[in-house]
């Protein structure tokens, strides 16, 4: 209360000075104060967007609004800060891998995000200068808990899956719901090789999505798709069955959906990258 009163007094004092000056000498400079939108307005705008898709109508609030309602945005769009502070500097991260095998895929995955976001978010790092390191990992306790994993500033790819000739058949079988047999013809072999390449590109793109603060999605056409999700602080609802989306399976196309891209644009506003 006291502070407010003093502010009013000083405003009156300055006004009194201003009135004594000739009009031409008065320069009014409004203080730059970003307004925080009322909670009801934020919620109502969020409710009007498609499921898990922060379209442009919820991407033009002030930074104080994103700060104030951070947990609401997190929960409504399955996002959260997942990278350590300093991984992104002025909206860029430097990504490095010592593996020439992984580098091929990583380069494509970085381009996938950079192209969609319209800037070089992921830059190629060196062994001396990087903020995200990409390498091989074990795949968890039983070796097949994950294909890729992102944590704080490290990205791992399951080494045994990556080097297995049959693993891609298992994944294709799981996605199609049919038994997928080994390639018999040259055409089949080429098709499987293509699936293999896209699968690992998509896996790294997915993990880079985590670095940007994107959690999982139930939509199969999202790069951030996961088979299941548990409702939490940054997950809107639980799921155990996939949602078809546009019918494609991003895990085999390495194509970002509009939802993926809009969520990444939102996490930038939330300050996660
Ligand atoms: Zn994931």
From TrEMBL:
InterPro entries according to UniProt: MetalloPept_cat_dom_sf, Pept_M10_metallopeptidase
Keywords: Hydrolase, Metal-binding, Metalloprotease, Protease, Signal, Zinc
Sequence ranges assigned to domain Peptidase M10 metallopeptidase in this UniProt record: 201-227
Pfam family for this entry, one: Peptidase_M10
Signal peptide boundaries: 1-25
One GO MF term: metallopeptidase activity
Name of the protein: Matrixin family metalloprotease
Lineage: Bacteria, Bacillati, Bacillota, Bacilli, Lactobacillales
